[in-house]
C-alpha cells in the first residue's frame, strides 16, 4: 500500500498538533491539514483563553518537548496550580465559609511533588506546539487548505482539496473542533444540549501574589473562576446568562472593570483587566461514535463540555495519548492503522471516561448555577462535608490532576523517542 502519509490530521489547533506530535514521535509520517495559515493561528488575537493542564497532561507535554518550548530564558509561561478553593456565594458578597479546599501537598506522593496542574495561555501553548512541530522532519504542514471530499477505501483514505489536489493516508484523524467538517462528512451525529450560559474571558492583573491558588466561586448565574497565571495575573472565566453576558460585553472599559472587580473582591488588592475580553456561548456536545471508516475523532470533534472543571482540553490530550499508544501497538503487531479493530480499541478506551466526565460536568453546573435557597444550603453543606473527608478529597484531587485510570505511556511522562 502506497500513501502520501501514514496519518493525516485535519485541524491544526491545540489537540490536533498534540496528537500529530505524539504520533510523529512514535515514528509515523504525519500531514497536518488546516484551513488557516500557521501565522494566523499564532496571532495574539486568535484566542484569549487559558487552559488548565492537569499534572498527567503536563507530563505528556514534557515528554513531547512542548513544556521546554514554554520557557523563555528564566521565565516559564506555565503557572502552577498549587491549591483550589471551591465556594458558593453571591456577587459582591463574601463567599460562604462552607467550602471545599484542595491542596497539592495532600497528594504529593501520587503527584511526585508537582502541583495539581498548570495554567497556560492558549496563545503561549499554540506557539510552543508550532515550535515543536517545526523540529519534526516527519510532520508536514498543508495549510491553508480546504478539504472538499473524503473517500475511504479498503487500504487508505483520500482527501481532495479545493484546488483538486489529493493526499492519502492509512488513517484520518479529525481534530477540527466542535463543528467538525470531517465528522459531518462521515455522517457521524452528535448529542448536543445548551447551557443557556455564555463565558466572558479576559486576563487581569492584581496587586498581591495569588500563591498559585485557583478560585472557583459559584454564583447564581454560573461559576466565576479566577485562575492563576504567571506573575500577578489571573485568567478570568466569568459565566453569565446570555443576556447578562451580552450586557457586560457592551459596557465601556471603565464600567466593565468595575463590574468585574465587584465579583472578584479585594482579597488580592486592586484588580484591572490587561487584555481584550472575549465571549463564548457554552454548550455540551458528544459524538455518537468516535470512529468511522479509516477515521477517528479526537478533542472537541468528539466531545465538547462546559469549562466548569477545566477538563475540556485535558480530555483531548488524553485522547491523543491513548490513540498514539494504540497505533504504536498496531504497528508492532503488523496491523492496519485504520482497521476497524484498531479504531474500536480507541473508542473502547476513551468513550466511557469522556461520557462520564461530560455528564458529571453538566450535573455539577446545573446543581450550582441557580439561587434556589434549599438547594443552595444543601450544596454548601455538601462542599463542607467533602472537605472534611480526606479520602474523598484526595480522590477528587487525583481525578482533577489526571492520576486516575489506565494511563498511556505519554501521560506517565514516557516518550516514544
Summarize the structure.
The protein contains twelve helices and 22 strands. The chain is α+β, with helices and mostly antiparallel strands and 417 residues long. The protein is globular.
Helix content: 25-40%
SS elements, strand count: 22
Instruction: Give the biggest sheet.
Output: 9 strands, mixed
CATH topology name, in short, is: FAD/NAD(P)-binding domain
Structural overview:
By secondary structure, the chain is α+β, with helices and mostly antiparallel strands. The chain has one domain (about 5-190, about 285-410): FAD/NAD(P)-binding domain (3-Layer(bba) Sandwich). The protein contains 12 helices and 22 strands. It has helices at about 15-25, 40, 55-65, 65-70, 120-135, 180-185, 240-250, 255-265, 310-330, 340-370, 375-385, 390-400, and strands spanning about 5-10, 30-35, 50-55, 70, 75, 80, 85-90, 100-105, 115-120, 140, 145-150, 155-160, 165-175, 190-205, 215-220, 220-230, 235-240, 270-275, 280-285, 290, 295, 305. The strands form 4 sheets. Strands 7, 8, 14, 15, 16, 17, 18, 19 and 22 form a 9-stranded mixed beta sheet that branches. It is globular and about 65 Å long. The two termini are about 25 Å apart.
